[in-house]
Specification:
The protein is mainly alpha-helical. The chain has ten helices and no strands.
């Protein structure tokens, strides 16, 4: 149970920043200390049991490796965003794939892959990639909005996704405009035109 808890914490820490907060992290180090500590009254010459040493070693390894992978993933993601903004989708896609290889729980690299697939004329792949982004962060309006756009480019009905994006973030001008633009027509040709003209959340 302790190993499972440490593993779950380490995976979450790799995807979010809250591992830096002592209130979230202290227990993990405390468990590690308990695992290697000798019972009261035990002679100091006694070595920890093999299983205890293994659990402690695995915990330390996870604590060290996961933040490192998160940092590498973030560096690759930053390169992907920069390349996309410069119009270089080849470099952007390569960096996005590198980010995913380090840490596959991030939604942002899949979002970038989706928009690059649109530029490459591959709307079906764009929909698939954006769907993966949304699955990793289903409450984020940005991926509903992105899914509305790539569906519109493919000539598919983008209105449900646009409506959900607006519901998730009523203050977003992008979401509000998409819901209005897509909601006032049922023409696939118009959906495509308006989707291609829409602003992206990652635009400079």
């Amino acid at each position: 149970a302790l190993l499972a808890s440490l593993l779950a914490w380490a995976i979450h820490a790799g995807a979010d920043w809250d591992w830096e907060m002592p209130v979230v992290t202290t227990w993990a180090f405390a468990l590690g200390g308990l695992a290697i500590a000798a019972p009261s009254g035990t002679p100091r010459s006694r070595e920890p049991a093999s299983l205890t040493r293994i659990v402690a070693a695995l915990g330390c390894l996870l604590l060290a490796v996961t933040p490192a992978l998160a940092a590498l993933s973030q560096q690759a993601l930053d390169r992907s965003v920069a390349a996309y903004r410069q119009g270089d989708c080849t470099a952007s896609a390569d960096a996005a794939l590198a980010s995913i290889s380090y840490l596959s729980v991030r939604p942002q690299p899949f979002e970038l892959l989706s928009y690059c697939n649109v530029r490459a004329g591959l709307p079906a792949l764009a929909i698939k990639s954006m769907g993966k982004a949304r699955a990793r962060d289903p409450r984020n309006w940005e991926y509903e909005y992105g899914l509305a756009l790539v569906r519109g480019v493919a000539g598919l009905d983008p209105r449900p996704q646009a409506a959900r994006a607006l519901l998730a973030n009523p203050r977003s001008q992008l979401a509000r405009k998409a819901a209005l633009d897509f909601g006032t027509t049922d023409s696939p040709r118009e959906w495509r035109r308006r989707a291609l003209e829409a602003r992206l959340p990652i635009a400079p």
